[in-house]
Design a protein that fits this description.
Elements (H helix, E strand, L loop, with lengths): L3 H14 L10 H9 L5 H11 L9 H22 L3 E2 L2 E2 L1 H5 L1 H19 L7 H25 L7 H26 L4 H28 L2 H4 L5 H4 L5 H9 L2 H12 L5 H15 L1 H20 L6 H15 L4
Antiparallel strand pairs: 1-2
Helix pairs in contact: 1-3, 2-6, 3-4, 3-8, 4-6, 4-7, 4-8, 7-8, 8-9, 9-15, 12-15, 13-14
């Protein structure tokens, strides 16, 4: 049985072997910067784990795993430009360090390289991998557009929000699992069960992010809380609060949403108090648990033995055991 650490090592070695050369034009320097600052590498790891459920030849899933990781980082480079974000993973964002034009161009190069890496997948499963990858890439873009649209909309419904996080976050996790299964020779029903597992875990994971941003303990999460409140982000918590608030609570929320000059700590405390009064923290936890349970219903339908699911179960539990 391969361990999580072993599969991480396999992917890291493959990533190192595929590192792009530093050319005179400097095109790949921002790309290498983005890939070198790491991240959790969750998506490629899911791809390898899924493949391993159906074959010992995990190397079959390395090309799609790398394609997914390059695509994911390409979206982050361009998202950071749209958000004018100064930092990513504790380092300067690509556009901050290299300039906006270089970030756009290097992001484009990352997308092209993702397709190049994917083309190296086993030929017998390449058409199916491409169909999944293409569909997912467009869905991620749709999710990002929805998220940007929300910034200018007065009201966002819960179904709209859940659809947005499904597209922006969950479908890429789902695709990583499906593509790994395809590379491993899985039957279509098993690949789709893994896709649904990933989609539901992705939604649960984003709901947990919403909770941690507002109610997390900095000492445990490693980052300050309240950023979503300060940015007026339409999260599960805010949407649920606006749906259930009485007149007085709605007035308080609308006041802070409209405020342009304020003390950050005061705004965070006031909005959190309303959230606590309305019980939206418990509602978010309940929704998160719903999607988590639904995910494992799909995982349990995959026709492999229990041992084949253990790695995936272990990683998922690690991801969902972050503290607040």
């Amino acid at each position: 049985m391969f361990s999580i650490e072993h599969l991480q090592g396999v992917f890291t070695q493959y990533l190192h072997e595929k590192k792009l050369p530093d050319t005179a034009s400097g095109l790949y320097q921002p790309v290498n910067h983005m890939m070198d600052i790491g991240g959790k590498r969750i998506r490629p790891l899911l791809c390898l784990m899924s493949c391993r459920m159906f074959t010992h030849e995990v190397e079959r899933s390395l090309p799609p795993a790398l394609a997914i990781e390059f695509f994911h980082n390409f979206t982050l480079v361009h998202d950071d430009i749209m958000d004018n974000a100064p930092l990513r993973r504790g380092h300067q964002t690509v556009h901050t360090r290299f300039g906006v034009n270089a970030a756009i161009l290097s992001g484009d190069a990352m997308l092209i390289k993702a397709y190049e890496f994917l083309s190296e997948a086993p030929k017998n499963c390449l058409p199916a991998l491409l169909r999944t990858f293409n569909q997912t890439a467009l869905e991620v873009c749709e999710g990002q557009q929805m998220d940007m649209n929300f910034e200018n909309e007065q009201q966002v419904s819960m179904p709209q929000y859940l659809r947005m996080i499904e597209l922006k976050t969950a479908v890429l996790l789902a695709a990583a699992l499906r593509m790994g299964a395809i590379a491993g020779g899985a039957r279509t029903p098993d690949a789709m069960q893994l896709y649904e597992f990933g989609r539901n875990i992705g939604i649960a994971f984003q709901l947990q992010d919403d909770l941690l941003d507002t109610f997390g303990e900095p000492g445990k999460t490693g980052k300050q809380t309240g950023g979503d409140i300060l940015q007026n982000k339409k999260t599960f918590l805010l949407i649920k609060a606006m749906e259930t608030a009485g007149k007085e609570q709605r007035t308080i929320l609308q006041h802070w949403l409209a405020a342009r000059r304020f003390q950050p700590d005061e705004k965070i405390a006031a909005v959190r108090t309303v959230f606590e009064q309305l019980g939206v923290q418990e509602a978010a936890k309940s929704a998160m648990q719903h999607y988590y349970d639904l995910a494992f219903e799909h995982l349990n339908c995959v026709t492999v033995n229990i041992e084949g699911r253990e790695l995936l179960t272990g990683l998922t539990q690690q991801l969902m055991n972050r503290q607040w």
